[in-house]
Specification:
The protein is mainly alpha-helical. Helices cover 61% and strands 8% of the residues. The C terminus is likely disordered.
Length: 244
């Protein structure tokens, strides 16, 4: 029992270090990577926020949860959050602030809902986020290896945007197919609870409306391959517990 307690204390110290790194890191991507790693450790080892003694990024109400750090969000992160929200009973909103006196505004994605739904939605976002980054990078590297083309920034960005567009479309379709399995394993219902809808509408009534503009699909083959890859993702309970 003592050994287990000591091990848990070591994990808590690691989580605290990662969260401190995420808060202090000026590099958005490194900060987000530290944040996601901390969240995964918390989920895996069932560490609660009160065990961290204030070392947590979201000091919000119990029915709000930050999914990213304050950063310059990619368009696909916002799209991914909406996909997760629509499939896992949580509402999504953006929280924008000036960070460390920086004149440039930075934004974080927030989920809003019941605590049990928030935990599952966050798990799914973390897994899906890592899948988007990993599969997209692999696809681009493989594309250039097979084509023999010289890497060009504009073409790479077009390739990336088209693939991610397709991947997210396939992922959304996959979630809708798997929701019955997930519902059985996690006791998840499809609709956002009425009390959450009511409270959310009251909370956001004075919020600015934000329209997420997605880049157009310029390379259809990349879109199709991304879509097929997204539809093959397995986000059942086993995937959540052990990783993909």
């Amino acid at each position: 029992m003592k050994e287990k307690s000591n091990n848990n204390e070591k994990i808590i110290k690691t989580v605290k270090r990662l969260l401190a790194l995420a808060n202090d890191n000026e590099n958005d991507e490194e900060g987000q990577a530290a944040f996601l790693t901390a969240q995964k450790l918390m989920l895996k080892h069932k560490i609660k926020e009160h065990e961290l003694n204030g070392y947590i990024l979201n000091q919000e109400l119990i029915n709000q949860q930050s999914v990213t750090i304050y950063k310059k969000l990619f368009w696909w992160e916002r799209t991914l959050a909406q996909i997760i929200g629509s499939n896992f009973r949580v509402k999504v909103f953006l929280n924008t602030s000036l960070v460390d006196g920086d004149k440039n505004k930075k934004t974080r994605i927030m989920f809003y809902g019941l605590e049990s739904d928030l935990n599952l939605a966050r798990e799914m976002y973390i897994l899906a986020y890592e899948a988007v980054v990993s599969y997209t990078n692999d696809y681009i590297d493989e594309h250039y290896r097979h084509s023999g083309k010289q890497r060009q920034r504009y073409y790479t960005e077009s390739l990336k945007a088209s693939y991610i567009n397709g991947f997210l479309t396939g992922l959304d379709e996959r979630f809708k197919e798997q929701i019955s399995i997930l519902r059985g394993e996690y006791e998840v219902l499809v609709l956002v609870p009425a009390e959450v809808e009511k409270a959310y509408k009251e909370m956001v009534k004075d919020f600015d409306v934000y329209i997420n503009k997605k880049p157009s699909v310029e390379i259809n083959t990349a879109y199709q391959e991304g879509k097929e890859r997204g539809k093959r993702i397995d986000f059942t309970k086993k995937a959540v517990e052990y990783g993909m």
